Every structure is written in structure tokens, then in C-alpha cells.
Amino acid sequence: MATLEPKMKKIQAIIRASKFEDVRDALHKIGVEFFIFYEVKGVTFQTEQKGSYRGLSIYDSAGSIPRRVLEVVVPESDAKEAINVIKKSAYTGETGDGKIFVSSIEETHRISLG
Amino acid sequence: MATLEPKMKKIQAIIRASKFEDVRDALHKIGVEFFIFYEVKGVTFQTEQKGSYRGLSIYDSAGSIPRRVLEVVVPESDAKEAINVIKKSAYTGETGDGKIFVSSIEETHRISLG
Amino acid sequence: MATLEPKMKKIQAIIRASKFEDVRDALHKIGVEFFIFYEVKGVTFQTEQKGSYRGLSIYDSAGSIPRRVLEVVVPESDAKEAINVIKKSAYTGETGDGKIFVSSIEETHRISLG
Amino acid sequence: MENIISDSVSLVSTDSTFYLKSVMDSITASKAAYLQAKTEITSNSTSINLNAFKLDNLWMMIASALVFIMHLGFATLESGLTRAKNTTNVLFKNTVIPAIGLLTFALCGFGLMYPGAEFTGAFFGFKGFGLNLPDGGETSAYSPSYTYWTDFLFQGMFAATCATIVSGAVAERIKLISFMLFSMFFVALVYPILGMWKWGGGWLNVIGFHDFAGSTIVHSIGGWGALAGVILLGPRLGKFEKGRTYPIPGHNMTSAVIGTFMLWLGWFGFNGGSVLSADAGLVSKVLVTTCIAASAGCIAATFTIFSISRNFDLSMTLNGILAGLVGITAGADVTGVLDSLIIGLVAGIIVVLSVITFDRLKLDDPVGALSVHLVCGIWGTLAVGLFGSKAGLQQVVIQLIGIVSIGLAAFVAAFAIFFIIKSTIGIRVSKDEEIYGLDGGEHGMEAYPDFMNK
Amino acid sequence: MENIISDSVSLVSTDSTFYLKSVMDSITASKAAYLQAKTEITSNSTSINLNAFKLDNLWMMIASALVFIMHLGFATLESGLTRAKNTTNVLFKNTVIPAIGLLTFALCGFGLMYPGAEFTGAFFGFKGFGLNLPDGGETSAYSPSYTYWTDFLFQGMFAATCATIVSGAVAERIKLISFMLFSMFFVALVYPILGMWKWGGGWLNVIGFHDFAGSTIVHSIGGWGALAGVILLGPRLGKFEKGRTYPIPGHNMTSAVIGTFMLWLGWFGFNGGSVLSADAGLVSKVLVTTCIAASAGCIAATFTIFSISRNFDLSMTLNGILAGLVGITAGADVTGVLDSLIIGLVAGIIVVLSVITFDRLKLDDPVGALSVHLVCGIWGTLAVGLFGSKAGLQQVVIQLIGIVSIGLAAFVAAFAIFFIIKSTIGIRVSKDEEIYGLDGGEHGMEAYPDFMNK
Amino acid sequence: MENIISDSVSLVSTDSTFYLKSVMDSITASKAAYLQAKTEITSNSTSINLNAFKLDNLWMMIASALVFIMHLGFATLESGLTRAKNTTNVLFKNTVIPAIGLLTFALCGFGLMYPGAEFTGAFFGFKGFGLNLPDGGETSAYSPSYTYWTDFLFQGMFAATCATIVSGAVAERIKLISFMLFSMFFVALVYPILGMWKWGGGWLNVIGFHDFAGSTIVHSIGGWGALAGVILLGPRLGKFEKGRTYPIPGHNMTSAVIGTFMLWLGWFGFNGGSVLSADAGLVSKVLVTTCIAASAGCIAATFTIFSISRNFDLSMTLNGILAGLVGITAGADVTGVLDSLIIGLVAGIIVVLSVITFDRLKLDDPVGALSVHLVCGIWGTLAVGLFGSKAGLQQVVIQLIGIVSIGLAAFVAAFAIFFIIKSTIGIRVSKDEEIYGLDGGEHGMEAYPDFMNK
Ligand SMILES: Nc1ncnc2c1ncn2[C@@H]1O[C@H](COP(=O)(O)OP(=O)(O)O)[C@@H](O)[C@H]1O
Ligand SMILES: Nc1ncnc2c1ncn2[C@@H]1O[C@H](COP(=O)(O)OP(=O)(O)O)[C@@H](O)[C@H]1O
Ligand SMILES: Nc1ncnc2c1ncn2[C@@H]1O[C@H](COP(=O)(O)OP(=O)(O)O)[C@@H](O)[C@H]1O
Q: ipTM, 2 decimals?
């Protein structure tokens, strides 16, 4: 029944999979204990040809790029630091580095506490 | 460090994969440049038999249908249009077309801006 | 165009896949008709070795555990019950049972209503 | 016996009467010895012939096993080049075809294809239903190089191959039961009746048509059947849309490669076994021309598609190998190494251009079966008139007669069967079933239920 | 030599004395010629016998290779019909089994199974440990059709097959080390001791029990072992729950099809090699009955399951092929084509009903090994008494004696081994390991680490 | 003829003159009979020799087919042990290599490797370009056991194998076109020139170097080529980082197992065929030592890696099988069963330690090709001096000479070719291409487009 008291923020970061380990380690350093991640596709609308099959160009699936999404829920007070840390560790400077979205979480429950 | 000024909305649309390309193109037309998508299962509780294996009916996994989730974050002012466009392009009229959920995003950051 | 009137809450529950069917059935019992789920990895920072390949320890993917995420959007009035039901049915008491996050949904649309 | 001789010889210095008897004994003994030697020589001869027969028959049985494994090749190649949602369906078809093929070939195909010498030069003959071991059918009396059983097995494996060729071209949209019906008739009637024209001693054989292991008889017949199916079925959803042609990539290149290698391996038996004996020189030469043509087809297709799409398209490389193999099949016995190299190279180029052309013609063939089996089958048959020991204008004409007559007959027959099926029970699955995959619709199961699909 | 004769003959018109000498010379020469011819004839005979020996031995070596590849068949079939999270584990078991099998068969199995003529009619015999080339072991003195080495290799491959049958039925929940221990004892002791009853010249052989290639000796023994394991292990989590039975689909139909074709191919050697020579008539007949039964099993199973579930269930079709193969294995040499057709059809029907029945009995067999190997093994053994040249009531009784005695002994022995293992180190993995997959628990690795699982 | 003799004998009781004639007739008849018998004996002899020739040749052709299928083994093993994003690329390389290998071996390799008797003991010889059937090339005049064609095919399949070994070690980062160029030169020049030293009758053969089927000639040459490539390419991104070594798991264990079994099967032909005849005793003994060593390698590697990592690592078990096979390849003909057991066990231990050592040395070999082919190739070659009928200090020295000389020459040559390619067109793909996979970069396609990747 443990609704945690402090206000919580959900940070959803869409990053390059190749930067994942850096981000993970950076988050760990500032004390984040757990987060989840999953794979998504980002859609872009540049239809450059990315391949061919049996003489026919593959355009469509070329328009999507693989990205990894990290979701971490942190107390409001820690959000800024977490965001900064993600931004720094996921950074390459080239277009395609990704985005971070922050939203409010109203309640959090830890199932194992019953 | 770019916390974008305008209020942002996250639109999460659960749609048929077969309608994906229509939705994508419709969003593109109204100026959406990027969004992410991933695969989920929708659970239904109609246990109609959807297959069999070695003489045993497959009910359970039949109770889940594959759906694609689109997540796009847009300025509040554009949200209505985006929602309408998704609804129209994902529409078949039959049950199972999916849902759209809208929530607030408090901050967004573009990682490549550092 | 059906923006549903009652305030809606999104419940995002990160649970063990092995508890999925219990949670699903429990939700069904209290009247939840649909929800979506997808697979994610939860990152932990205990780098206990979880495997090896050709004599080299696999730490990294060992640091991630597979979890299933359920997302269900319910009217505010039903949220408490749904949360309780999930907590109970996903419970094993051991660490790793997962978390539940609740956030606000501002609008929901049913695509098939046009 | 030797003692008798030496005894008689030791007595030679005695008197003439005795000597007379001694000579007589010698001659008698000699006669007996001779008779025994003769018996031994004859028995040796028999044993030698038996060894030769067993040896040839052994090779033919092994060749049958090799041709058999081609069905695994087709199954994995065709499913590899189609989508994951249809994998169970494609595999299923290729699994039941050898069963249907062997059973119908036993029922009537064998009797139709090899009706016997009295039908020499004919268009049609029939020896009867079922398998009935003739007198001496297990000895060289039946044939110098194989038993009746081996004969059936080898030819039955060939028959099934022919139907399998169709399955790839019509994949991902044909109704399962319709396909099974088609295959049954195709392999029970069309293949053996047309095959008889050449291999059963029919009219094409008499006019000198040369088709060593079946560029026309097996591959083109299968290819014409495939063409009929492709025309009557129409393309897969999403292949030709809004005036553009979209690629539909195969779901599993590992499968496709396994399939191609199994087919190449099988071709050791397909061509090597078509010598119909274990003749050292001919079989080994055939294997060399076969492998050289396959290699040449591989390289030619690889660089042809590269020059077109700037990509090393593995699916085309695999098709190139098969193109070379199909190309050399008609003339593997009469062409030299250089000939086979050229035949393979040309086949490898043709197959790529043909795949692209069929796409232009809006004929949708998911695995390239038309290009590999039909087009390269024709090329290979023609090549017999252009290269090797049979080359010559007259042979070209004869080869063309064979290509056209078999082609016409096979296409018309296949079209008719497909058309009747289409008009009655239908041949195409519903749009929904096609979108969600035939695995769900026809089989109620997934091929890879544990993996997430895109 | 010819010169001597012709010389002597040309001198015939001279005087008698001279003539006498001339005749004597002729006879002497004749004798020498004869002796030389005799030597040549004998040397020819020897060469002929050597050729025959080499030929038979060649076939037996190839048959060994074919039986060997059945292990790949089992590996891919069994892993294809189980879940992705256990794939490494299933593959691993099927990979080490041929190794364990060959090594233990060399250590003691061969000596137990073929103890020699002095144990004719016995229940047990032992020739000794290890492989010891007997005098003349590389010649036809050892056996008219194969060398000592070939004998070991062929029989060793069979032995390993028997253990492999168990692995599928106990998959997805058995502890790896326990399974390896079981396999070792099963293949080192149980299989060869029981196998000796028939193939080692033991008591079952003496009473006239007929089991050509091992419907009982290989498949049923394996099947009984599997049954013991299934009973002692209990079902997989999630199979039988809340009074219902849930399907647990296999993760990879491509794998399963590859496996089935490899097994069918291997059966060319399994049955064909069991003729123990390259006899043209018998081997080719055996291959035909084998393939007809497989085809019939395929078709029968396909339509049996369709009539039950309205789906063309590929996994059942594959089981049907194997059912037909197992069914014909006991009598492939003594049954005709029509017999083999019926045996295969019945096997194909039985296997489907049996799978459903085992599910009803709450005996959880992920791959259908009990139905294919045990039930159809029994059917095939019985069929020898019903069809073909040995059919008759007396034979039925003898076959039943064999089925029951071998069955009892194999089941009790396997049960005992499993029971001892269960009571000591345990046989089942932890619940957690089972849920997350044995690949992680036993091997610390995934079979498909790059793919997303559902 | 018999009549003539019996006639003459029946006339014996008449007068002497007549008798004389009668004896003369008898002798004449006898002579004629003898001549005819002689003809028959000779014709029998010829037939016997022909049978023996056909039989040996048949085995060599089948062995060629078995060696051929090893290329499928390499394709699936290597792609199974690498990542899904590079699967098309790995498969592609292994598909074109047999084609490149056969064509270049036909062009010049065969002429370089078997230049003829006049180059006995030499370092280099050349018979000429292309395939030119010599007089009697299809008969036993060419060789007692195989035709010219079979000879080419068998040796050509071996040649291609050698290049394939390199492909696994350099996988996941080498530029495709660079690899194809390297392979061409390696198989066209390096392998045949060095192979000639032993198998072409060159200097190593003359000094008594023993390498039955190519532990050194095929596997080590391939391994040295791989080593040169690995050094010049550097490790894959992410393998050695921040002072640690990271595992990069192979994407498909099913593939890897299929590959290993195909290789083991192929080894029946690789070693069995290297007897160069169907000699019953020797071939079957070779097959037994081969299979025992493979089994021993399997078990040894399994428990060695288990003792290190506490996991039953399937990839190591598979490498162990291959280690045993490579290890026994040099001495399969001269070692006994126990020797082969030890050789296999040692190979299985070595291969695991070697994989770990190469990782320590920061030499990145994705599939363990260096450990299997190079290290165990050396071990096997050396083992000829330690076990079996050739064991002895002198032989050890000779074996070492062979290992070092071939090793040096192969490494230097491969290094030079790779170096020239690196300095001109480059050998490594871009960092981006490596991260996103060579399938996209080199082939513009995915191997598994329907599945979600992690
Ligand atoms: N408004 C958005 N809503 C949802 N996802 C987005 C949005 N904008 C970008 N993304 C996703 O974030 C990922 C990286 O964004 P991108 O814009 O390419 O990076 P950059 O800002 O460096 O150009 C892409 O996969 C894209 O799909
Ligand atoms: N309340 C909800 N929370 C989360 N997901 C939902 C909810 N309602 C529906 N969905 C998901 O949206 C998808 C389509 O919804 P559905 O209700 O079937 O469409 P329709 O409104 O046309 O009947 C399904 O996959 C379902 O799981
Ligand atoms: N703050 C968080 N933000 C996002 N995901 C989290 C957070 N805390 C835990 N999780 C995820 O929830 C799952 C279960 O949480 P865990 O903390 O292990 O359970 P328990 O509370 O029983 O210890 C894990 O997969 C973890 O990654």
C-alpha cells in the first residue's frame, strides 16, 4: 500500500542503443538503482534507399531507425540531475541522439511490499 | 539544456499494424517529423479458439492480439490536429481499431543539443 | 471524437512474466476489459555473473532481467481497486516483484467510434 | 585331379598299350578338369555380373537418397525466401509433396511414365496400376544396373521434385487444399505422361530429343505448372501497388542457404544418378560439369545483380547456383568442362534478368522458381544444341520441338487443373488470411511462436 | 605355353616314338596351362569375393553415415518442437549423446550386444571391454559383408539413437547432468543387453522373434526409457493446470522439418543398412517399403489431425512420417508394398490418437516421442505377425512375447536408473530455472540472443 | 567343344591310326577350349578390375559429395556463432567460396598441386592451366581407384575447404570484396603450391612427412591464413574494451549445431575418402578412429569449459567435436582406437584453452577457427609422431619440419596477400557498417527481416 510520499517524475529517454551502456553507468553513478528499457523504432521521413532485394529497392523499412527507450522514475528532486546525466552520456552531437520526455507520476507502488 | 517552452502533450495511439503506414503518412502530412513505435499485445477476454497444436486448442495466446503503439510528443496547440489525423487514418470502423491516450509532458530535451 | 468525461488514470505495472496470467485474470474479475502489455528489460546493478560464453563471463545482459509491462487506463474511481488487485496478484514477496506507476491521462479516444 | 594327370605322365615310359590307357586317362581327367574349370569360370562370370549389378544398383539407391534430400532443400529454400507468417504453410507443402508424389507415382505415375517397349515412339502408354514386381525384377534381368524397386524409387523421387517446383512460385497466397489437389493431379498424370515422351521411350525420344536429367522434363514442366499457377492466382498483396513494385524479403537467409546446399548436394544424385549406372567415367564427368556449372552460375548471378543494384544479394547468388544446376541438367553428359562453364555463366546472368523481368510483367514469383526452373530449364535444353558433342543446327531444332511441345502441353494441362480448381473450390486464401499469414489460417499455428515479429 | 602346344601338334605326322614324346609334351604343357589357369581362376575368385566384400562393406559404411545424421535429425526435430528458451539445452543433449553413445558402446556395449556364438539363445553374454580387432577382422573372415570396424560403427550409431529417443520426451525440465548419467547407463548397459536378446543371437532370436531394423529393439526400448522418465519427472509447468490441458507450441517449425527430413534420410541407412549387405533386391525393396510407409504415415496423420482439430497441424504431419518409419522398421524386409502402405497408414492414425491420449493421461511428452517410438514401435513389431511373408497367429504370439519381455525389462531398468538418480542428485530443474529456461540455468547462454522473445 | 572331346574319347578302342587322329583331335580341341577358357578368364579379370575400379571410384565420388556438404557445415556453424546482423554476410562468403574454389582449382590449382611425377621432391611444379582429360583419364590407367574427373572433384572440394576456414575467423568486420579477393589467391595459389609439397609428391612427402587427410595441409594452412587476417584486421568493436574482454554470443545455436553435424558427416568423406580407395579395412578403420576422436573431443571440451566457467557451453562442445576431428585427420590411418581416443581428448582440452588464450592475446576469432583448425591441426600433425604405427622421435622431428615449413610459408603468403589488399582497397568495413551489421552495408538486406532484434 506504499504510496511513496515525495512527488515522482518519469523520465523517458529515447537514445541510441550504442550509448546505452554509458547512460546506464552514468545513472548508476548518481544512485539510480533500477530502470527499465525496451526497443522501439523511430520513424523518419527521409526515404533514402537503404537496401535492395532481388533488384527492387527497399525504401520503407529504411525510414525507421532502431532506438532504445529508457524509463526511470525518480523523485522530483533528483530529476534534474538524472536528466543532465542522461543528456551528457547519450550525447554524440550528431543528429539522431534522441529525446528526453519528463512527466508526472502520481503514485508509485512496490509490489513486493504487499 | 533546452526545455522547450510550449506545453507538450504525449499522444499514445494503440493501432492496427496494418494501418500503420496510413497513420504514418497522415502524420507526416501535418508536419510531424519524428515519432517512435513499438509492438505490444492487447489482451481481450473473449476466449475464442484461434488455433490448435497437437490436438489441443490454443485459447490463451488467442486472447491477445498484436497491436502497434505510436508515441508522439507534440505542442499542445498541435495535439488536436494530430489526434484527429490519427483517428481518421487508423479507422476501419470495426471493433479493435484501438485507442488514443493523451497525457502531459512537462519537459522535453533534445540530446543532440547537449 | 469521444473524449471520455471521467478523469482517467494510466496504471503502468512492471511485473514478472510468470505472474502475468494471475494478474490478467484478477483484472478481468474486476471488470477490466482490455489492456496492453509488452516486454521490457529491467536493469539492476548487481553485476552477478549470469552466464558465460566461450569462457568469458556474461555480466552485462546478466544485469538485466526480463519483465513484462502492463498498461491499463481506467477511470480515476476504479484506479485504487485495480492497483490493489495487481499488487495482490503479482505478489510473491521476494525482491523483484516489480513496481506500479500511476499517471494522469487527459483524454482518451476510441478510434472505432470515428 | 592334378594327381591323376601327374600319375599318368609318370607312366609314359612303359609300353604302348598301357600308354594308350594312360593317355586316355589323361584326356578324361583333362576333360573333367576342363569342365570343372569351365564351371568355375562361369560361376566367376555370374559373380562378376552380380557384383557389377549390385554396384550399379547401390549407386542408384544412393542417388535416390540424394534426390530425396532435395525435398528438404526445396522446403528450406522456399520457406527461407518467403515471410515468417507463411513458413508453416510453405514447409507443410514441401513436406507432404514427397509423400503425395511417391504414393501417386506408385499408384499410376510409374505405369504411365514407363509403359514398356511396346509404346516406343508413342504419345501415351500405360502399364497398369500399382507396383508389381516383374519376374526377375530384383535381378539384372530387369535392367543391367538396377532392380525394379530402385527404378521406382529413383523415378518416384524425380516425380515429386517436379511438383515441388510449383509450390514456391504460388506460395504465400494459394489455398492449401487446392494446392494439394493440384499437386496430386500434376504428379500423377501430367508429369508422367509428358515424361514418357522422352524417358519412357516416347516420340520425343525417337526423334532424338536430348534431355539428360530433365532440364525440360523435370524443371520446365514444373516451371510451366508454376507459371499457370502464378497467372491464375495473381500477385501477393502489397507486391504491386500504386504503380510501384515492392520487394517482399524472405524471412530467413539461413534457411535459404541450407536449402540451396541441400539442392546442390541432391543434384549429385539427380544428374549423377541419371547415368543410370555407376559408370566411373561418365558419372564422374557429369559430377564435374554439374559442379562447374553451379559454380559459374553462382559467380555470374552475384556480379550481375551487383552491377544492377550495387548490392551482393544473397538470394540472387543462391538462385544463380540453382540456375547453373538446372542449366547443365539437360546436357551434363554430352558437354565438356568449358561448355559447362559457359552454360552456367549464361544461366547465372539469365536468372537475374529473368527475375527482374517477371517483376516487370507483374508475375509474382516469391522464390524465383519461374526464372530458375522454367527459364533456365529452357536455356539448358537449348544449350545441348549449342555446346558439346551433340551441338548442331538439327539438334537445336529438335531441342526446340521438345521445349515447345512439352511446354505447351504442360502449361495447358496445369492451367486447366488450376482453372477447374479455381472455378470450384477456389485457389486463393482470403485477404485477411493473407495479411495475417497462412500459418494461422490454414494451420492454426505459428512457425516461430516464441519470437517477436516485426 | 600356347607355343608348346602348337609345336607339339605340328609334329604329329612324324614317327610314333617322336609322337609319343610330343603327346607327352602336350600333356605336360596342358597340365601346366591348366594349373596356371586354375591359379588365375582362383585369383579371380578371390578378387571377386574381395570386390563383393568391399561393395557390401561400402554400403554398410555409408549406411553408418546415414544413421549418424539421424542425430542431427533428432537434435533439430526435438529442439524445434520445444521452446526457444530451452533450445540450447535440447541441442546440447542431442549433440553429446552420439559422443557418449559411441564411447560407451566401444567400452562395453559392443561386447555386451554381440557376445559371440557361444551365447546363442542366452539372456546375457559378454565378450569383453573395448575394441579389439580380431584376426581377420578387416576381411570377409570376420563377416561376409563388413569389417569389424564397420560392424562397430554401424551398431554404435544405432545404440546412440536409442538414447536420443529418450531426450525429446523428457525435454524442458530434466536436469542436464542427470540426463547425461541416465543416457550413459542406458546406452552402455540396457540397450546392448536387451538388444543381444535378438540381434546378439539371444533367446528371442532363437524363438523366432522378428525385428528387422529395430521397431522394438531400438525404438521401443528408447520409448520405454522415455516413459519411465516422463512418469518420474512429471509434466512441464503450465501443461496441465486448473483441470485443463494447455498446448505448448514448439518454437521453430523450420528446425522440426529439417529434423524430420534428416531422420527420413537416415532411415535409408537405418533400414537399408539392416540388410547387412548391399544385396540389390532386398535393400532396394526395403527402401521402397520404408518410403511408402513414411509417405502413408504422413498422409494419414495429416488427415487424422485435420478431422479432429480442423487444422493441418505440421507437427503432427512430421510425427506421422516418423510413425510410418518406425512402424515399417520391424518388417521392412518381409512385407510387400501394399503391406507397407497399410502399416504406414495405421501408424499415422495411431500416432495422432496416441499423442492425444498421452495428454489425457497427463503424461507430458513435448515432442511425441512416446507415440512415435514406443506406440508405433509396438505396432510395427506386431505388424510383422499380421502382414507379409511371416504373418500368422504363431508369429503374432512370438512378436507379443518379444514386445512384452523387452518392454518390461527396458521399462523396469530405465525406471530403476531414473529412480536412483532422482533419489540422489535429483532429476528435475528448479521451478525458476524451468520458467526462465534451461538455457540460462544449465548453459548460461541463450540459443538466440539477438532476437526478442515473446 | 565338349562334344569334340567326348567323341574322341569314345573312339579310343579302335585302331591305332585312327586313335592317333583321335588323340590329335582331342589335343586340338583341348587347345581351342583352353584358348577360349583363357579368353574368358582374361575377360573375367578385366571385368573384375573394372568392378574394383568402379567401386573405388564410386566411393571417391560419394566422398566428394560428403566433403562438399562441409561447406554447408561451415556456413551454418560460422553464421550461428556470429551475430544476426552479419548473418547474410557470413552465409554469403561461405556460399561463394566453394564456387570460387572449384573454378580457380580448375583454372590452375589442380595443375599446381599435382604437377606430376617429374616434380617429385620439388618445391614447385605446374602441369598447366585448366582441366584436360589425359589419355585413359576415365579408366584405371589414370589411377587404380578413380578417374581424372573424380580426382579433380575430390581435390577441388578440399581446396575450397581451406579458404572457408579463414572466413569464420575474420567474420563480422572484413570487407566482402577484400575477402573474396583473398580467397581467390589463397585457394588458387597458396593452398595448391604448399599442398604439393606433400600430396603432390613434393619435398615433404619425400622426407617422410605424414599428413593423412590434411591436419596440416588443409586445416593448418587455413588456420595460418586466418591468423594473418585476424592480426591485420584487429578485433571486432566491443570485444576488447576498457581493459576487459566481452563475450559476443553467436546468434543461433540451432545453426551452429546443424553446421557441426554437417561437418562431422563431411568428415566421413574427408578422412574416409583420403584412403583414395574403398579398401574395406582401412576406410572403416579410419571412420572409426575419426568418430572416436570426434566423440572424445566433444566430451573433453564439454568438461574442460565446465570446469572453467561452471556452464555447459554448447559452442565449446561443438568446437570440441571439430577439434577432435581436426586432430585425428593427420593420423587417422596409422593410429589405433585408443590412440584416437587420446588424440581426441587432448584436442578437446586444447581447443578450450586455446580459445581462452587467443582472447587473452587480444586476437579476436569469432568462431574459434584458430583454435580448431590451426592449433588442433598442429596437434594432430604432431600426434602422428607420438601415437600409432609411425610413432618415434625421428617422425616427431619430420612432423615438426612439416608443421613449421608449411606454417611459415602459409602465414607469410597469407599475410602478404592481406597486406597488399589492406594497403590498396582496405580490408575493414567502416565503424558504422560494423555497428549496424555487414548485412546492411554489403548486401543491403537483412537475414531475418521479419523478426525483432534485441
Ligand atoms: N516528438 C517526438 N515524439 C516521439 N518521439 C520522437 C519525437 N522526436 C524525436 N523522437 C524520436 O527520438 C529519436 C531521436 O530523435 P532525433 O530527432 O532523431 O534526434 P535529434 O534531435 O538528435 O535529431 C528518434 O528515434 C525519434 O523517433
Ligand atoms: N483501457 C485500456 N487500457 C489500455 N489498453 C487498452 C484499453 N482499452 C483498449 N486497449 C487496447 O487498445 C487496443 C484496441 O482496443 P479495442 O478496445 O479492441 O478497440 P475498439 O475500441 O475498436 O473495440 C487493444 O489492443 C486493447 O488492448
Ligand atoms: N524507479 C524505477 N523506474 C523504472 N523502473 C523501475 C524502477 N524501480 C524498479 N523498476 C523496475 O521494476 C522491476 C521490478 O522492480 P524491483 O525493484 O526489482 O522489485 P522489488 O521492489 O520487489 O525489489 C525491475 O525490472 C525494475 O527494473
A: 0.86
